[in-house]
Design goal:
The protein is α+β, with helices and mostly antiparallel strands. Helix content is about 35%, strand content about 35%. The protein has helices spanning about 15-35, 105-165, 175-230, 355; strands at about 40-45, 50, 55-60, 60-75, 80-85, 95, 100-105, 235, 240-245, 250-255, 260-275, 285-290, 295-310, 310-320, 330-340, 345-350, 360-365, 370-375, 380, 385-390, 400, 410-415. It has a six-stranded mixed β-sheet.
Length: about 425
């Protein structure tokens, strides 16, 4: 016999219960892994870096690794080219000014000296011969003057005597005129001889001066060549430590080639490379410091090199106070270079969040410490430890400073 099957209410049907339990489970799982909304993310608080926003003195500075160098380095260049014959001092030796470090040889220079000496000797002989010839000419003219003076005196007496006789008609006119012509001839010859003596004297003086001038020039040239020969002995220009000697026995060095350097160890400087971003802000006179053996030493920027290479420029830092004991050339130190005077500012520690946000926003922890929300901020200057906060945060608030790569586009972090 058939019986009527009553339909159960929906809340008593098993399939509906299964469906409800599944929906609730999905909601629970979704909340556990994705938060309470699509823009929330649940994170473990122990994996976070949480820092306080605080007011403090902000010192803008950059940290750079610098290398210790002597305050003064004098380079050794080959003044004259040649072959390395002898190395007297090794790299690292202490030298005094004038010490011979190495010797070069140059056969062409030796030949040049021989030629210059031969030309100088020839010029000396020429000058001597010219002086001798001029002296002989002077003596000849002087002797000729003696002869002409004698003949002039004789002709004058004869002319005077014949003139008296002619006036008394004691001699013929022809004889008188002959004695007169003879007298005036010798008188003109003497005048010509005196003029020649004067001209020759002036000519001899000019010629001697020219020869002596040429001789002095040749002597100076010879001294210069000899000085070049002395330059084959490479000497220390200052007292200090010989460094980076670049020479081997038998090696040929050209004129002007770098042979080494002498480091003056009276003082030191620290040389560092800085990113070109700071080239407009780094000026001579800025303060800096570094730590060595547990003690801080003060530095000052002494020189800023204008040339930029591979995105960096070079600076020199000199010691503002005492030198550290045991400091050596080539040591490296982490220097802190100040970019201005300390000032009071709102600060947050540096962290990986900056790479994700560009400093435009940050997660701020709620006072309940149960969640953190995204907030727009504005950052100013920075140093290796802190960012300067210009807008968006207040003193005493807490922020998350670690990397945000895992949080995606979340607007809210649920802390557990």
């Amino acid at each position: 016999m058939d019986r009527i099957i009553e339909k159960k209410p929906w809340y008593l049907q098993k399939k509906n219960w299964y469906l409800a339990i599944g929906v609730i489970a999905i909601v629970i799982l979704y909340s556990a892994f994705l938060g309470t909304s699509g823009l929330s993310f649940r994170v473990d608080e122990e994996t976070l870096s949480i820092a306080d926003v605080k007011n403090d003195y902000f010192q803008e500075y950059i940290a750079r690794t610098g290398t210790v160098n002597p305050i003064t380095t004098v380079y050794l260049d080959a003044i004259e080219g040649g072959r390395v014959e002898e190395i007297l001092l090794e790299e690292g030796s202490m030298v005094k000014k004038g010490d011979v470090i190495l010797r070069l040889s140059n056969s062409e220079l030796n030949l040049q000296i021989l030629n210059s000496e031969a030309a100088f000797t020839e010029q000396v002989n020429r000058l001597r011969d010219t002086r001798l010839s001029m002296e002989q000419d002077r003596l000849n003219i002087k002797r000729n003057l003696l002869d002409i003076d004698l003949n002039l005196a004789k002709s004058k007496r004869q002319y005077t005597r014949n003139k008296t006789f002619y006036e008394k008609d004691l001699i013929a006119q022809e004889e008188f005129e002959a004695s007169r012509d003879d007298y005036f001839y010798h008188k003109k010859v003497r005048d010509l001889l005196l003029e020649r003596q004067k001209t020759d004297s002036l000519s001899r003086t000019i010629q001697i001066e020219r020869l002596e001038s040429n001789l002095r020039k040749m002597e100076d040239n010879l001294d210069l060549v000899r000085e070049k020969l002395q330059n084959l002995n490479v000497k220390a220009p200052v007292s200090g430590q010989l460094g980076a000697l670049n020479a081997e026995l038998g090696e040929s060095k050209s004129k002007g080639q770098r042979l080494g350097q002498v480091n003056v160890l009276d003082n030191y400087k620290i040389n560092a490379m800085v990113d070109e971003l700071y080239i407009a802000r780094l000026n001579k006179g800025l303060n800096a410091s570094f730590k060595f053996n547990g003690k801080e030493y003060q530095l000052v920027v002494s020189k800023v090199y204008p040339e930029v290479r591979n995105g960096q420029f070079e600076i020199d830092l000199k010691f503002a106070s005492e030198l550290p004991n045991g400091i050596r050339t080539g040591q490296t130190f982490r220097t802190k270079i100040e970019l201005g005077e300390p000032r009071e500012a709102l600060l947050i520690p540096r962290g990986g969040f900056f790479q994700s946000t560009g400093g435009q926003w940050i997660f701020v922890v709620d006072p309940s410490e149960e969640f953190a929300v995204r907030r727009e901020i504005k950052l100013g200057n920075q140093n290796p430890k802190y960012y300067e906060v210009l807008e968006g945060l207040e003193p005493g608030e807490k922020v998350i400073t670690n990397s945000y790569e895992l949080y995606g586009e979340s607007e809210k972090l649920l802390l557990k």
